[in-house]
Amino acid sequence: MSDGTVLCFDFGLKRIGVAIGNTLLREARPLCILQAPTKARRWQGVDQLVADWQPAALVVGIPRHPDGTAHEMTELCEKFLRQLQGRYHLPVTGVDERYSSAVVESEADFIDDEAAAVILQQFFNEPPLQEDV
Length: 133
Known about the structure:
By secondary structure, this protein is α/β, with parallel strands linked by helices. Helices cover 36% and strands 26% of the residues. It has helices spanning 39-53, 74-88, 100-103, 112-125, and strands at 5-10, 15-22, 28-35, 57-62, 92-96, 130-131.
């Protein structure tokens, strides 16, 4: 992966949490939560983020059950990952997000961006479990 900005997505059908970091500092931080009730709004928000930040790579959290089996959202997240690859022609890596929301301690109503930061920090800290799903 080339040096630069990395955007991470905690995909959901209603909201997408987004975090940002870079390959030099290898530190993640929450960026925003995209309200994504429709596919059109989802892609509009993602398009804007990619245009604004010009990332070198993208990361997507892939949910799994505690035993590693597929979660009901696993297939949708993997599809989102493939769509990101096709749409932006950037390296896209899937990261096991099994306990990302449980790690976040927040009093906010929505923690999707903070969960995305946990996923991205995991990507920076260790080799991803799934690459290019």
